Amino acid sequence: MKRYLVIALSTALLSAPALSPVSALADNTASTAINSQSSTISNKTQVPEFKNVSVHDPSVIKVDDTYYVFGSHLQVAKSKDLISWDSVASGVTDDNPVVPNVTKEFAEALQWAQTDTLWAADVIQLADGKFYMYYNACKGDSPRSALGVAVADNIEGPYKDQGLLLKSGMWDEISEDGTIYDATKHPNVVDPDVFFDKDGKLWMVYGSYSGGIFILEMDETTGKPLPNQGYGKKLTGGNHSRIEAPYMLYSPETDYYYLYLSYGGLAADGGYNIRVARSKTPDGPFYDAEGNDMIKVMADKDKPLFDDESIEPYGVKLLGNYLFERQIGDPGTGQGTGYVSPGHNSAYYDEETGKHFLIFHSRFPNRGEEHEVRVHEMHMNSEGWPVVSPYRYAGMESDSVQVTEQRAAGSYKWVNHGKDITAEIKSSQIVQFAANGQVTGAVTGTWSLLEDNKVRITSNNVVYEGVFTQEWDAESQQNVLTFSALSSSGVAVWGSQMNAMKDQDVVQAVKKDLTIGNTENIFYDLSLPTTGTRDSQITWKSSLPSVLSADGAVNRPRSGKGDAKVKLTATIRKGSATASKTFQVTVPEQAAGPLLGEYTFDNKKLAKIAQDFSKNGYHGQSFNVVSSAISTKNQAAAFNGKNSYIQLPGLLTDTTDFTFSAWVNWDGGGAWQRIFDFGNGLTRHMFLTPSQHNGALQFTIHDQGRDQSLIATEALPTNQWVHVAVTLQGDTGTLYVNGKSVVSSSEITFNPKDLQASEAYLGKSRYAADPFYQGKMDQVRVYDKALSAKEIQLQAEIKP
Questions:
Q1: Is the dihedral of CA 639, 640, 641, 644 positive or negative?
Q2: Which residues form the LamG-like jellyroll fold domain (predicted)?
Q3: Distance between CA atoms of residues 730 and 334, nearest Å
């Protein structure tokens, strides 16, 4: 349980790279190859069955044989094995079983913070056997927050409020310490972690941005702060530095308290990363690996808010944005294994299994803001700092392995996490560990295997101390040998060993894996790969370079010339081995006229086909959409709000300037429904929603990790026919309702052509959590130019 955190790290934890089981595993097996440079140890590897869950800011507690994580927005999940998770509750609504009638139960906190949601919760069990939930609410755009405690007899609730403990953000008023609140010095009272020290004394560490991270002495009987402490003692941060989410764990092996922190911003473009500092006492002082006193770490008050440069050199950075890049020809599918903005962690030592765990949420490369809980095992290096195993914990049952120089020698995917706070993803590079102790490739230096599978790596006079472990790589579906190590300046490096391959095997693997995607309608420039696994080279040749060049540039035939058929041939080389692969590509002719697509929905086959009445024949496919009579001569498309949508060709977005025009009759309902959503995956898209979370009509185009939006002052009217249009011309975007401009911006620099759209939906979002559109549409038109205000007005005058 999360009670007395007395940790006894066993020798086995430090020396054995094998992962011991903590639960039942899947019955199916996967055979994996064995060779001198592969870390596979068994031909009968049990494959773990991961079941993911979304809990932001997960704080862990174990009750009997079950792990629970409590997070923001009253999200709770549980697991028997830290691998397969089930949701228990989600949402600050009065039907949440964990806190029934939460809007009334926590009304004081919600009202003070002027919000309708809750932030990161933390739960601990005290000596009375009851469970104490430390909840908090924050306004979000300021440190106006409230932190309270609720109690339950059962871990899953129901929790009853015991009142507020702290408040913050009371501008120009007396704060908890008797002085006028100052956000640069006083904390934002969120992100609590309540813990027992090695002597059984209760503490609470908390804080986010603004004045920094603070610690309070707590009453072990009531679970509330001891009197006359104000906000407590400051540990680090201040001047609105982006340091938050403190979590404390004590190790009796080193006799240190480890303070985990998250630096940066939590969004996909925020550069969130996990760091740690340590102290001999729970209330500090805390130091990083270079001996820097963390109390001195804060943003430069003379710089703008959230100055990262002042704080990024400090703290031991355990992990940030990274990608073990899967190259063409590598085992598995997809882009590889990686995280974006991992952070707000908790940590746990399981006495039953003798394992140290890091539990956090993360976003992922090319998945936008979607996030899930991840659990990684940790080990202590020779300097007494935790190093995080590169792959998620899989609970694999495998034989214990004693690493030898011969076994450890080979090629590795190498990631250096650095010390910066950045949205950049640190992609892996290839290095070779030779049996004679030399390191070559992207990094040069030396390596040596020490006792208990520990490793020392030296490069550019920097020494990294770490450990070899064996882990499960879900991407390649095999066990791999990995290392995780830290430098004396607090920089983490990770390595994942690659299977040895002969040159001929390399080119054949690349040939088998090589793809350029859908080749039927290529209307945008292709990014043709030039390298494959193991530094293999790929060159290209086109049968019609005037239409599709060897470097992927596309020049569509003029309208009336017909579609072009192009043969694109790749030649793969590795050493003296070669192979070739040919793709048949269709490049469609240019559109006829500025009207790209026109959908009036008057055809009788709407249940299957959304017919394009323009000259281009860009017909769409209809899913569960039915015809709805407007008059005896006119039909509209009716969307049920459950599973109906229309998919149009991505060719509709092959334009720089753009107009979308339609008549819509929206039934109302949940936020973020889509009138249209055109794009490619979760990283490049544009959409129009009748109402977003603040109740406003919104158009957004998203690219390069940024949104550019047109947001009206109110939602689209319901239960009536309304004409709506979006135009893009140069850097100017305009949103129209019933022929009148409701918002315009000269900062819409993205354009539809750059989206390289592979999906173009009417009535459906590319985000699975968003509701389907409910209502009707008619006279949908898409243009490769921006219609004038007068042209939009004329269309709005002709009602369906």
A1: negative
A2: 656-790
A3: 35
Residue given tokens 């006193």 in the structure block: 293
> Among the options 57, 193, 612, 703, which is catalytic?
57
Q: What is the pLDDT of residues 502-526, one digit of tens each?
A: 999 999 999 999 999 989 889 999 9
How far is the C-alpha of 377 from the C-alpha of 206, rounded, in Å?
A: 24
Average pLDDT over every residue of 16-21? 28
Query: Does residue 513 have an active-site annotation?
Result: no
pLDDT tens digits, residue range 632-686?
A: 668 999 999 999 999 999 999 999 999 999 999 999 999 999 999 999 988 899 9
Angle at 88 between CA 82 and CA 89, to 5 degrees: 130
Residue 300 structure tokens: 């430069």
Whether the CB-CB separation of 163 and 149 falls below 8 Å is answered with: yes
Neighbouring CB atoms inside 10 A of 715's CB total 18
This prediction has a pTM of: 0.84
**Token output for 286:** 């805390």
Report residue 459 CA to chain centroid gap.
31
At 104, is the secondary structure helix, strand, or coil?
Answer: helix
pLDDT over 70 (residue 295): yes
Taking the C-alpha atoms of residue 95 and residue 110, their distance in angstroms, rounded to an integer, is 17
Kindly name the residue from 244, 372, 471, 513 that is annotated as catalytic.
244
Contact 210, 308 (CB under 8 A): no
Task: Quickly tell me which residue has 């039907």 as its tokens.
Answer: 95
- pLDDT at position 353 is 72
Name which of 510, 505, 484, 509 is nearest 496 in CA terms: 484
Q: Which two tokens stand for residue 351?
A: 């006495």
Tokens describing residue 436: 């004679």
Residue 402: pLDDT band (50, 70, 90) is: confident
The secondary element (H helix, E strand) that includes residue 584 is strand 577-587
Q: Token digits for 322?
A: 């990274």
Can 714 be counted among the known catalytic residues? Answer: no
Collect all residues with Cβ–Cβ distance below 8 Å to 768 and sequence separation of at least 6.
Answer: none
Q: Give the Cα-Cα-Cα angle 684, 685, 691 (nearest 5 degrees).
A: 140
DSSP lists the bridge partners of residue 770 as none
Residue 510, H or E segment:
helix 503-513
